[in-house]
From TrEMBL, chain A:
Belongs to the binding-protein-dependent transport system permease family. MalFG subfamily. It comes from Roseibium album. It is a multi-pass membrane protein. Pfam families: BPD_transp_1. This is Maltose/maltodextrin transport system permease protein MalG. Part of the ABC transporter complex MalEFGK involved in maltose/maltodextrin import. Probably responsible for the translocation of the substrate across the membrane. The chain crosses the membrane at residues 12-33, 75-97, 109-129, 141-161, 182-207, 241-263. InterPro entries: BP-dep_ABC_trans_perm, MetI-like, MetI-like_sf. Residues 71-262 form the ABC transmembrane type-1 domain. One of its GO terms (cellular component) is plasma membrane. Its main location: membrane.
Automatic annotation (TrEMBL), chain B:
Its main location: membrane. It comes from Roseibium album. Coiled coil: none annotated. This is Trehalose transport system permease protein SugA. Residues 70-277 form the ABC transmembrane type-1 domain.
């Protein structure tokens, strides 16, 4: 077989695999563009008469299921969960990368959190939050999602600081600059690409999280993933499949767009995270 | 300021945060696991010795949930690694020239597992779902995907289709990182095709394969989101993972002490697993 034919088969395999693994997304997108009548008449993937009425219908039920509130809660919680790991891990990452500090205890503890089933902390956190008033608040949700994001943040930042030339901060040090000045004025700007990667990766993870949203919020701070599942519990007249599909699409746009913009960086940091984790 | 003071200051914010967010809950976990506790006396639990542990260990549902998690974690990790490896190596020649293909293939990873589960609620629905529609159309029959007999295969397939891209991505990167000289030297010795893969490339990718398997096993073992939104505890409890078991004992049945005792057991098992996995990885030089 010539190389050309071989590559043609590879292309066919690629297209087939891409269609299979993305089929749920395509089917949901297609359902979100159909009228209720068309969904039951034509469950297939092709839309005969596309319409946006399902997206408009999301707004009509917003008194009962407020999608803006879900989106806002997800936005606040995810922002906290992406900024906080940077603030907390950046100083420690410097100590780890430059001085090998914390390599025996703090560093492995944080990194191994990646492999802990975090539900084991959910119940005591529920009690803790209840007594300090963090239950059902975006802040409370953001704080625990920040914990989820710590391992990868620390790994990426340690790698990034390792790549910063040693002479840069050593020179500043000899000039008498204090450690915090060095961190903020010299190391921080050089690490900006890595910090952006941490931010976006953490944001996607936090936005997509479900379990803590389910356990630690009830009404006011419900995030988008949990809110979307409400559209599937039939209140009276059965599930409105078109509207439910539209809600899933709305909930998934943010992480998918971020992911596509960032996929090169994400693959690189996943390597860092996975290989060293 | 001496260096060691500086180091301590640099570490302080993270350490304090961890103590509050994880240290305190861990202590609560341990205390409550030895206590009689319900939503009524949440603040003043009464000590009851090892009662919770005894009742957990005698609960057949705890064991079936543990068995489910173990089976699910191993099966999905295995399938994802095999499929990911085949895809990465087979498609490498065309992906190398078209890196945008990576973005298409890792798209499922960007979707929340909970949203993926909800998508399948629609996709598998017997009247409005696309999959039964096509199966009836082409094969004349469609299985009950969420019945007790089929549900494990269904959730296994869903998890595998969403996370094979993770294994694929790691393996593709590892495959591309193999130095060209290695391949050339092996080719001079007459190795090509499958033999080249088996004797040269695969051993070089082994550490990555081990890591991918471990990460996928962990995530499969603690699975919650996609199964919970798809079946709840449904299908006669056939899909109750350990995470779902803990959640259900806490909220639905109000057996808080049991839920916490199960958490502590899970904590200890994970800790041991991590400890040994770490030693194993270090010994193999990964």
């Amino acid at each position: 077989m010539s190389q050309k034919v071989k590559n043609l088969i590879r292309w066919l395999v690629f297209i087939l695999v891409a269609l299979i693994i993305n089929f749920p997304v395509l089917a949901t997108l297609s359902a979100s563009l159909k009228t209720a009548a068309e969904i039951s008449r034509n469950p297939g993937i092709f839309v005969q008469s596309p319409t946006l009425e399902n997206y408009a219908s999301i707004l009509e039920v917003s008194e009962r299921l407020n999608i803006f509130s879900y989106l806002q809660n997800s936005l606040i919680a995810s922002t906290i969960a992406s900024v906080l790991p940077i603030v907390l891990c950046f100083p420690l990452a410097y100590a780890v990368a430059r001085r090998g500090y914390g390599k025996s205890l703090i560093f492995p503890t944080v990194v191994n959190l990646r492999a802990m089933p975090l539900i084991i902390f959910a119940i005591p956190l529920y009690m803790m939050y209840q007594s300090v008033g963090l239950l059902d608040t975006p802040l409370g949700l953001g704080l625990i999602l920040a914990v989820v994001n710590l391992p990868l943040a620390l790994l990426i930042l340690v790698n990034a600081i390792n790549d910063v030339p040693f002479e840069l901060d050593e020179a500043a040090r000899i000039d008498g600059a204090r450690i915090f000045v060095i961190l903020l004025k010299i190391v921080f700007p050089i690490c900006l690409p890595a910090l952006a990667t941490v931010f976006i990766f953490s944001f996607i993870t936090a936005w997509n999280e479900f379990l803590f949203g389910l356990m630690l919020t009830t009404t006011d701070a419900v995030p988008m993933t949990v809110g979307a599942s409400f559209f599937f519990s039939s209140g009276g007249g059965g599930v409105q499949w078109g509207v439910a599909a539209a809600v899933i699409i709305v909930a998934s746009v943010t992480p998918v767009v971020l992911g596509i913009l960032m996929y090169k960086h994400i693959s690189r940091s996943m390597i860092a995270g996975a290989v060293k984790g | 300021m001496t260096r060691s003071t500086e180091n301590r200051i640099l570490a302080t914010p993270l350490v304090l945060f961890l103590l509050v967010m994880l240290g305190f809950p861990t202590i609560l976990d341990i205390i409550y696991s030895f206590s009689e506790v319900s939503f009524e006396n949440l603040r003043s639990p009464t000590f009851n010795g090892g009662q919770n542990y005894i009742s957990i260990l005698n609960d057949p549902e705890f064991w079936s949930a543990s068995w489910f998690s173990m089976k699910f974690g191993l099966a999905t990790a295995f399938a994802e690694c095999i499929l990911g490896l085949v895809l990465a190596v087979y498609l490498a020649p065309i992906i190398r020239k078209n890196t945008w293909m990576i973005a298409v293939l890792i798209m499922p990873m960007m979707i929340a597992p909970a949203m993926m589960g909800l998508m399948y609620r629609l996709l598998l629905h017997e009247f409005v779902g696309a999959l039964p529609h096509y199966m009836f159309y082409w094969l004349g029959d469609s299985p009950a995907f969420l019945s007790r007999e089929n549900v494990f295969t269904t959730v296994f397939t869903i998890e595998t289709l969403q996370w094979t891209p993770f294994a694929f991505l790691l393996f593709f990167m590892a495959y591309e990182a193999i130095p060209g000289e290695m391949r050339e030297a092996a080719a001079v010795d007459g190795a090509r095709g499958l033999r080249m893969f088996w004797h040269i490339e695969m051993p070089m990718m082994l550490p990555t394969i081990a890591v991918a398997f471990f990460v996928r096993f962990i995530d499969g073992f603690r699975v919650f989101d996609n199964i919970f939104v798809l079946t709840g505890a449904g299908a006669g409890g056939a899909t109750t993972s350990l995470s779902i078991y803990i959640y259900l004992s806490f909220f639905r049945s109000g057996e808080i002490g049991n839920a916490i005792a199960a958490s502590v057991i899970l904590f200890c098992v994970s800790f041991l697993a991590l400890f040994f996995a770490g030693r194993l990885l270090r010994r193999s030089g990964a």
